[in-house]
Amino acid sequence: MSLSPPRALALTLSVALATSTSAPAASGAWEGQTYNANAPGLESNPLKGFVPFGAATNNVPYSMEWYYLPLNSLMTGGNSSSGTYSYNWAGLDSAMAAAASRGNQIVFRIYLDYPSQAVATPQFLINEGLPMRSYSDYGNSSSKAPDWNNGNLIKALESFIGALGQHIDGDARVAYVTAGLYGYWGEWHTYPQDSDTSDGKPNWEMSQANKDRLLARYKSAFTRTHVLVRDPLASSTYKNDFGYHDDSFAYETLPGVSWHFWPKMQSAGLTENWRRRPMGGEQRPEMQSTMWNSWPNPVEYYYGTPTENEETAIKTTHATWLLNNWMFNNALSSTQRNNALRAQKLLGYELFVSSVRLPNPTTSTQLSVDINLENRGVAPFYYDWKLEFIVLNASNTVVKTLGTTQVNLPGIQPGSAASTKSFSAAHGLSAGTGYKLLMRVVNPLSNGKPVSFANAKQGQDRGGWLTLGSFDVTM
């Protein structure tokens, strides 16, 4: 059944702090709600959780898909002298469409140099004389690294970022963009060809000035969709303008070694950055096949270094999403599945309506509701999606769509007191008893996964919706 908008609608919204007391529904007093850590749909909440490469092959729930894309498939031609370039977005559009068809958003990265893959630097730049460097690190024999400080390359990358933002910024099919482009795998490093030349390797790093040129372009090109960078930018003017991703998660994440991810975030003064910008990354690939054998994940040694505690790493970094492809494309035992989903629910936000105030309206007064809304997760909900309200009758049939409103979901921070969100609308309902008011967060992806609340009444009367309470309408 489609939910048509009301003919007359008036909305009001206020934000305040309130305390709740338990009282009968529709009495006009606050009614406490029951928390449920296993409410239906929490494992597949959008914009958070573990992420497979493309579509998963088993039945582990997920809401995002990861895609790598070579730059030369998207930037197909150009002339550095005139500063004109041509683009073909078919590969990116196909990825967005494929994920959206499954109700998912994408996270992606565009690269020029992926060890062991084909060269991904646009051919027109090579034809113009861009130096290309061979290397054998990471088992590579096919890819080549461009001169990362070449003027034509930097100019082309700036143009590409602008065009990319124009094409997808704010697109509901995109969850997050990783900055990519520079370095091995687009991970913003050239190790071991870096500033430490004591190992006999040359320094191929991009200068900070050139990095900042790319970041400045990302900042101006993406004003709605969040962009994440791999390396904590201690010396960058733009370090506070982006999220970050740790691609060796729970292996080189926690304090103890200066070059681990979180110590670098600490040195850069970015430990509170998660409050406004998302944190993501990739579970260290060597860990993925065994880490769910026990809880917490078993300590194993790779290259002489022990793995870290997954729960501690998530809570320390406030991570929202992590690539973990193995768990989506291999058979899992019941123990592995349970542990994986336990960790999945730890990532990102967890919204909970702790109390509701729902007075009985008359046929001539507006229907009003106040909710105390908490975030019991480790990170905010990073996009300001709308709340929508509907009314069911005693037979659980939708009889009224009351409309939507925005409540600043990113502002509901983990660990903070509940925020009171108030909604009222002209309802046009007939006098009667047993009406129910339901609420949901509207996923702008038309068939996107619903946002589930950690409430006992989540999905109680309608899938994907939270029942707030019952009320009567009097004359």
TrEMBL record:
InterPro entries: DUF4832. Coiled coil: none annotated. Keywords: Signal. Residues 243-446 form the DUF4832 domain. Pfam families: DUF4832. The keyword Secreted does not apply. Residues 1-25 form the signal peptide. The keyword Methyltransferase does not apply. It comes from the Bacteria. This is DUF4832 domain-containing protein. It comes from Cystobacter fuscus (strain ATCC 25194 / DSM 2262 / NBRC 100088 / M29).
